[in-house]
Amino acid sequence: MSHDQGQTLVNMVNQIAANLSGGRETADTVEGVCSHLEKFWARAMKQRIVACLDEPDCGLEPLARQAVARLAERRGAPAA
Amino acid sequence: MIQHFDPSQHDKAFSKDLGTPPPAADAAPVSVEIDGVAITVPEGTSVLRAAALADINIPKLCATDSLEAFGSCRLCAVQVEGKRGTPAACTTPVAEGMKVTTQNERLARLRRNVMELYISDHPLDCLTCPANGDCELQDMAGAVGLREVRYGFTGENHLEAEKDHSNPYFSFDPSKCIVCSRCVRACEEVQGTFALTIDGRGFDSKVAAGQDEAFMGSECVSCGACVQACPTSTLMEKSVIDSGQPEHSVITTCAYCGVGCSFEAQMKGDKLIRMVPYKGGDANHGHSCVKGRFAFGYATHKDRITTPMIRDAIDQPWRPVDWDEAITFAAKRLRAIQSEHGRESIGGITSSRCTNEETYLVQKLIRAAFGNNNTDTCARVCHSPTGYGLKTTLGESAGTQTFDSVMQADTIIVIGANPTDAHPVFGSLMRKRLRQGASLIVADPRRIDLLKTPHLEDAQHLPLRPGTNVALINALAHVVIAEGLEDQDFIASRCDTEAYRAWRDFIAEERHSPEASEAVTGVAADAVRRAARTYATAGNGAIYYGLGVTEHSQGSTMVMGIANLALATGNIGREGVGVNPLRGQNNVQGSCDMGSFPHELPGYQHVADVTARGRFEAAWGVELDDEPGLRIPNMFDAAIEGSFKALYVQGEDIAQSDPNTQHVEAALSALDCLIVQDIFLNETAKYAHVLLPGSSFLEKDGTFTNAERRINRVRKVMPPLAGKADWEVTVDLARALGYPMEYTHPSEIMDEIATLTPSFAGVSYQKLDERGSLQWPCNAEHPIGTPTMHEVDFPIGRGRFAITEYVATEERSNRRFPLLLTTGRILSQYNVGAQTRRTDNQVWHDEDVLEVHPSDAEVRGIKDGDWLGITSRAGQTVLRARLSERMQPGVVYTTFHHPGSGANVITTDSSDWATNCPEYKVTAVQVEKVSRPSEWQRRFDEVDRAQREHLATAREAAS
Ligand code: SF4
Ligand code: SF4
Ligand code: SF4
Ligand code: FES
């Protein structure tokens, strides 16, 4: 099993996005995922996932990527 | 340390046997006169009970207030004015104006005759009898003034009847039996197991277990209710036979499961002789299971760690040191690591077995002295989805009812829980309600024992595939909506309209219909429809769920799905309904309440909430981090990556209880400082640098909070073996880290909790002693606590329906791993088994086995008892096979009570999307016959041996 931490975090966001997408508007999903990360993720994890935005093929699904980009914006880091 | 005197802990009403159970509390009052004393009691009270309440004590033998009256011994005969004969006081209810005589010459003669008959077939070895001093037969012989036995002892009798010592905790000596049938009735009425019968008639009648076999061979589950009910020494605890009658007792709370039974710890000096479930216990009303009543021997087991120990590296032997040196060593290392790797490089894990006060202190230590929010608890791996799911929908992270509420339920849904094994005392209560005719719906891959409840009226089993819970709950909700079974009034008045509309549109989609989801869940559509109708139209529908709901990749979604269903049918906010998580360990609820989670301060107040955080900062005198910290699995990942270096673990065994053992072992081995505080050298301690002796629940004061939010007192009955209670150790560590905490008694910790946690504002030790227990929220609005939640509104105002999309788990069976493994627990063992394995409970379960369906076994050529290699993508282990049809084909099952079985070597790091609660309940595996233990097990044995030697060396050095 892969235990690259970045990869683990990417999988986690994708899983959150998958669970928050069915039956919802895209905008709600993105907002839902972003605030979930804000509320439950540790600082280091947030920094790490935001850094993943710089890697084009990090594996973030589209909605997950939008949510992380929003997180980056809100934390004042430049969104990729 | 100050010892607080507890004058009120023994309530007189509970220390006396009133003969028959109380009638309904709201019954109309009836006035009677007994021996000239006027007394008013509720209608339905027996004459025997009414008299006892007036302290008029009518002799009795077959009656006891935990059982319905039976009227067989005739000792309680009385005379009622205007009535002929001498009716039995225990079976005669009071009637308005009734005049009763309980003592006169005629009654005395009658009673002496009764006693004479009993005694003529009873050994007269009272002086050497284990029940001497606690025998109702002896007491009654005295009370009726028996002076001679005319029949002699030469006739036919039972004095030579053979004893049965097969049960490890109690003996059965039929020569002393008076065939009062209290044991038989206790087994039926209280426990619900029906293991005992009266065999034969008249003189030949005798008590028999099962089909007249030894207790151990029968269906007996060793709850001990019969032993407690027996008025003679026929059924007697072996500990009393060995040590004699106890001389004082203390009321305390069981430290095993989330039922939180109250016990009288009966002592001789500082030696615990027996645990007797306390009649005044609000959670258990005088009942218990085999663990709480009997399995306390671990507390004095020779394996207990009694001195602090340290070492520089984990391949070194332990060095026994005094408390000061150990604490200083630990504090220095923590500070050194923080100055090298940063403030966030260390963290801690609180325990769901320790008290609320201890848990509170550990998270306080982490937040205030470590300076970060890297605190988590083992509730992460069991009920964190409950917190998330219930908070999102109902606004509070807790179950909505009391246990007693089940007695008002008309339909009971049990999802992914096995109450007769995991929450036995509540399981017994539920069975009682089922015998009274409530309908049962079980949604579980396994055919759990509850479905085998004797005298069950109506039971439906929905045997779903592991991992498809959400698809099933959506289908149930779909039926409610599609068939118009929702409670419109409740929804309109109590729920958020917009959220409801969105949810209704979602759930009404055809893809959620039982017909559509049948292919996913494997449950027939008409069975789902029938279950939904039964629940929605029941009157009172109650849902109980356990780890089979939470320990999934969609655990949180499922919890919300359950809440949706309850909201849609209006089954919230009164007795008999509700959403009820059955918690695993004794203080899972409490450890969550006490702020163990990295994102929440005590009372579920988010760390980013400025006002709440400000209160804590003012009280604690430090600035607190406003970002959540790491959760347990994140800590492990960070440890392996090298950014997380030290961990303080109080009373948890993460190396055994957490999934993907090899990953956990890698993480623990990567730490520079692991501080383990535990009563035994557990699996985690094998990777530790500092080992601090913990104290058992018998050795400290504090509180536990059970699954019904009930705060119960834990009272110290013996001094801590190693000199310190766990909370004192945390205080010492804080001081050594330069953050002094000043407490002289756990009551002061509770006072601090009350000032900082709105739902605990009204809690104090004094009030707990007065009332016995309190259910939070307990504050100005609810000064004596809150038995039923959400009666008027929700903490978030209106109930919020949540969209619950079914997302299939990635743990799917495939060609390589064609079977699904699911895990669970059994009655006699507890969690990782560290305690129960060190008691005679071992006789019921001394190894974990793999249950395999015969059809899966057949294609693999597996026979009962074969060694099986079980492989998942995480690892391999070897267990013995047991063929069983409790699961459907394609599903295998095991328990995780023994470390060497390595059940968690195969569970993966797949986890709940919202909380990272691991998906214990679904792992794709392959199973095949093998001839030797797995590589992990061989390595485990090596490490185990080496670490035990390190401990032994240290012990020698210390002695
Ligand atoms: S110990 Fe419990 S289960 Fe066993 S016979 Fe007695 S009452 Fe029944
Ligand atoms: S074993 Fe005890 S409780 Fe059972 S019938 Fe005999 S005396 Fe009564
Ligand atoms: S283990 Fe649970 S059910 Fe058994 S006595 Fe303890 S609290 Fe009660
Ligand atoms: S106590 Fe009433 S008949 Fe036995």
From TrEMBL, chain A:
Pfam families the UniProt entry points to: FdsD
InterPro entries (UniProt xref): Formate_DH_dsu (IPR021074)
Source organism, top-level taxon: Bacteria
Protein name: Formate dehydrogenase subunit delta
Taxonomic lineage from the root: Bacteria, Pseudomonadati, Pseudomonadota, Gammaproteobacteria, Oceanospirillales
Automatic annotation (TrEMBL), chain B:
SUPFAM superfamilies: 2Fe-2S ferredoxin-like, 4Fe-4S ferredoxins, ADC-like, Formate dehydrogenase/DMSO reductase, domains 1-3
Keyword Transport: no
Protein origin, superkingdom: Bacteria
Residue intervals of the 4Fe-4S Mo/W bis-MGD-type domain: 247-303
Region of interest (Disordered), residue spans: 1-27
One GO CC annotation: oxidoreductase complex
Gene Ontology molecular function: 2 iron, 2 sulfur cluster binding; 4 iron, 4 sulfur cluster binding; formate dehydrogenase (NAD+) activity; metal ion binding; molybdopterin cofactor binding; NADH dehydrogenase activity
Signal sequence interval, chain numbering: none
Start and end residues of each 4Fe-4S ferredoxin-type domain: 168-199, 211-240
Domain 4Fe-4S His(Cys)3-ligated-type: start-end pairs: 106-145
One Pfam family, short name: Molybdop_Fe4S4
Domain 2Fe-2S ferredoxin-type span(s) in chain numbering: 28-106
Keywords tagged on the record: 2Fe-2S, 4Fe-4S, Iron, Iron-sulfur, Metal-binding, Oxidoreductase, Repeat
GO biological process, one term: formate metabolic process
Family: Belongs to the complex I 75 kDa subunit family. In the C-terminal section; belongs to the prokaryotic molybdopterin-containing oxidoreductase family.
NCBIfam families given in the database record: Fdh-alpha
PANTHER family according to UniProt: FORMATE DEHYDROGENASE H, RESPIRATORY NITRATE REDUCTASE
Protein name: Formate dehydrogenase major subunit
Organism: Onishia taeanensis
Lineage, uppermost ranks: Bacteria, Pseudomonadati, Pseudomonadota, Gammaproteobacteria, Oceanospirillales
